[in-house]
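Bumping with the actual sequence this time:
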Amino acid sequence: MESQVRGGTRWKRFAVVMVPSVAATAAIGVALAQGALAASFSVSGQSFKVSADQLVGTGFEQYAALDNGYTLSGEKSAHPVAVSAFKHAEITNLCQSVVTPNVPFFGNVSLLLRAGGAGHDKVQADNIYIDVADLDADATFHNIDIGVAAKDADKGPGMKGGGEQANPYGFAQQADSATLDNVKQTAWATTAGTFKLSGLHMSLSTGVKECY
């Protein structure tokens, strides 16, 4: 069975994605570019934007969860998310951005990350989980199962576990593979077993500069 969705569909419930969040130092970025580290990223109190020309992933599953964190003022916060997971993903022309507002003396400060662009290998990720709030993309899913219990989804890497707040008996969906084109998404956190960012470039600047 093949399920296909076209157009600028805004998905809160069926969001599929990739990419790490942008809270990384240059040293960690170099290690990730070499595929040397597992990745676990979040931006405290902030969502971040990600875009990509294409994501091709195998072993996909998705389920609902609650992402706990803190606001920039230190207060606890919680956000409902769709956790999207792949056993393996390849990403073309990845861009990721986060804007920190009201930095003393500077105002808004933007951090921009790019990898897997022209002349470089695609970004590679294994056992990747993304806490997604919103997604626009053109997507094709192969051999999709909709409405399985989260604990019974066996095509992807399994539920994240740890401190994750998710109902193992709640709604989930899975597919053998998925292809997403023209991806624009908002996410709160990402974890991955390995993440290789070919052609990694990170920049920090004042003002608001985002992927889209």
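The tokens above came from a reply further down the thread. Residues 110 and 205 are 5 Å apart (CA to CA).
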